[in-house]
Design brief:
Length: about 140
């Protein structure tokens, strides 16, 4: 078999089809790589945000807890001679009410937060729409 005949077939319709398929595959891989890079960036940003929120939340919770315990103790001590049981019950009820309010606020905040990887998912949907010709 002649080597030039083999090269000549690459210039024909099958060769052009193979080149076109190769270029399409390269384009799809490039799009996939871009989307993975976006996914990586979004994950890094989300992890940083979560770490900062967790650290700040811990510090705030610790400081507020110590402050509330001290305030509760001060109230109980102030009413020690007259109504210590009532003061202890009032302080306890106040702690429970504050905890419930915090849980409600936390649930609202979690529901209101941005959807994880929203940018990546949006880009992938735009890619699908473009490939289907709905741009």
């Amino acid at each position: 078999m002649d080597e030039s005949a083999g090269r000549g077939s690459q210039r024909g319709p099958i060769g052009r089809l193979l080149r076109s398929a190769s270029e399409l595959l390269a384009t799809v891989l490039a799009i996939g790589r871009t989307r993975l890079e976006l996914l990586s960036v979004e994950l890094q940003l989300e992890l940083r945000r979560i770490a900062v929120l967790a650290a700040l939340g811990f510090v705030a919770l610790f400081a507020a807890s110590i402050g509330l315990v001290m305030a509760g103790a001060a109230v109980i001590i102030a009413f020690w001679d007259t109504h210590r049981v009532l003061a202890a019950l009032g302080v306890t009820a106040g702690f429970f009410a504050l905890g419930l309010a915090a849980v409600v606020a936390l649930v609202r905040q979690l529901r209101r937060g941005p959807r994880l990887l929203a940018g990546t998912l949006g880009e992938l949907q735009r890619d699908v729409d473009n490939l289907r010709g709905r741009s």
